[in-house]
Design a protein that fits this description.
6 strands, elongated, Ribosomal Protein L4, Chain: A, alpha/beta, six-stranded mixed beta sheet, 214 residues
Length: 214
């Protein structure tokens, strides 16, 4: 199917032929949910840790004698029931990450792109070139296509200068066409895909569909 390619003034310059397989598939809400859950889990550091009674520093001396004091018997100051003692059943370092089936991840990516297309929040723009790597240049390059809300710009490959220029824009996230994140796409108010990235996305996912490289 063909879609308009917008200039930085928001006017249609030409049309680009995009893949129905990528931008017009049936939306799978379940795959989107699982992909977002997977991405957020993989971001967790899992470094939370507390000391158990065996790790708390302190004396091994019995606080008071077993009988005759009128108090409850106690054998150690590191007991979890005492202030400053160890913590029972507290968090320990762990790895929260897990792997998802590649087919489900690809389905989720196509589903979120198709969903945004149907909602009217996905647009195709002319390729953005920022040789200076400066923030003001990428903002002016995008022009009226942005509205200072949460926006994702998808470019072809790892354009380091474009990513560097967009790094200091609070409302803008720059992603490579082959390194997309479902979480960023799903919660974006607007998605801008450059003309070359749109063609690359079609090749990337349609190629995998027909047995090409992942």
């Amino acid at each position: 199917m063909k879609h308009a390619v917008l200039t930085n003034s928001g006017k249609e310059a030409k049309q680009v032929d995009v893949s129905d397989f990528v931008f017009g598939c049936d939306v799978s809400e379940g795959s989107i949910y699982h992909a977002i859950r997977n991405e957020l889990a993989n971001l967790r550091t899992g470094t939370a840790k507390v000391k158990t009674r065996g790790e708390v520093a302190g004396t091994g001396k019995k606080p008071w004698r077993q009988k005759g004091t009128g108090r409850a018997r106690a054998g150690t100051l590191q007991s979890p029931v005492r202030v400053g003692g160890g913590i029972a059943f507290g968090p320990r370092p762990r790895d929260y990450s897990y792997r998802m089936p590649k087919k489900i991840k690809r389905l989720a990516m196509r589903s979120v792109l198709s969903r945004k297309m149907k909602e009217g929040s996905l647009f195709f723009v002319e390729d953005v070139q920022v040789p200076s790597g400066k923030t003001r240049d990428i903002v002016s390059g995008l022009g009226s296509n942005v509205d200072l809300h949460r926006t994702v710009l998808v470019v072809k490959g790892d354009d380091s200068m474009v990513k560097r220029a967009g790094r200091n824009v609070a409302w803008l996230t720059v992603l490579s066409h082959d390194k997309l994140r479902v979480n960023d796409l799903f919660y974006a108010r607007k998605i801008l895909i450059t003309e070359s990235a749109a063609e690359a996305l079609g090749e990337h996912y349609s190629g995998a569909h027909t047995g090409g490289a992942a």
